[in-house]
Amino acid sequence: MSAAFFPPVTEAWKKAQVKDGDVPCTAFLEAAEAFIPLFDRLGTVFSPVKSDVGGNVTKLKAAHAKNPTASLNKLILDEVAAGKTKDKTSASIALLWFKRAMQFIFSMLKKVSAGEDANKAAKSAYDETLSHYHGFLVKKSFQVALMAAPGSDSMLKALGNDKDQTMREMQEWVSAASPILDFIHEFLDKNNLDDKSKV
Predict the structure, then answer these.
(1) What is the reported pTM?
(2) What region holds the Glycolipid transfer protein domain (predicted)?
């Protein structure tokens, strides 16, 4: 029996909501960090995504420690002003790749919460999101790995004790995360930080 994953995580994401055209930086970092244990519950197939998300959250926290801005926007715009957005450890690059990995997970969970089988949802979500930024070898390795993604029954069991309740909780997180991820996507695009280079 698994303790319900989503309720405390959704509360954290609700605290990080966009307000007055900005995202509160500390609340956002706490929400991002709270989400990382999801990947442990979903199994080793999601280890690369956990590594990516976790690594980028660590970089964002380090950047914020050096420049403790109240807002996520200011953290990134200060880098723009300093000409440091291309630096290997920049918050800009970390936020970009965090956003992309989260768009993949968001799309998958949105599909599952709407009734699509989780294994199929993982594959189609990858095709719609992360695959656009992966070169041939990375894309092939992801596609092969996702063949082992759990089905809905296994996924829901890993995320809570009651399937229907977990579905409702998943839908609530999707609703809380959607405006934040949309805002970050638009903000990065508006500031010419959505580099389309493939890895």
Answers:
(1) 0.95
(2) 24-160
